[in-house]
Fold each of these.
Amino acid sequence: MPLGPYIVDFVCLEAKLVVEVDGGQHADQAKYDEVRDGWLKAQGFRVLRFWNNDVLNNCDEVVEVIYSNLTAAHPHPDLPPSRGKE
């Protein structure tokens, strides 16, 4: 999915969640991934990364992490922090 200057593996725009499934080539491009993740986070996205091997062999655990991130309370990045009741 195109997202700004990048292509992401999976994205839920409503939840501002990006899921990346990385192969072995990502071990050699850590700096690129760091810059890319920084750009995505600056746009308000959370980024989850999983190794191909985990997706193939530990699918239930991967799904649980994704689900937990989708259902966890995350404040909208455009809203000011809550100050409580006065």
Amino acid sequence: MSYFVYLITSKDKKKTISYVGYTNNLDKRIKLHNSNRGAKFTKGKKWKLIYYEKYKTKVQAMKNEYTLKKNYYLRNKIKRIYN
């Protein structure tokens, strides 16, 4: 089974906000975020997938999700490249 670390963005007034997560079903997870059944932070916004990475194990995905969540420099760099 494959796991994915993903970065989604949404426009919030004048700035772009982002959310990082991991999942084993990327399409289903994005649909959940956009149907107000995803994470509490993502409710009520329209999200766009801008970046993802694929991993072989859940442990690898969780470690890299944590790294991307905490590394705001890397998150902003990805947002600039893909937006």
Amino acid sequence: MSGNGTRLAAITKELWIQWQHTREDWKDAKSLEFERKYLEDLLTSVDAAVTVIEQLDKLVTKIRHDCE
């Protein structure tokens, strides 16, 4: 499960990097609005999701260990 969290974080980081490249050519109020409205919320949500995935991974590991 932790691999999924790592992958999600990596994909999101790559999206952010691509967005930064896009911003080099798209510099207006709409690009700022898009970033604030969609990307900032996405980054916050992904960070929270990765944290939950890590917690679930620890819980699953503990459950497996307890059942052995």
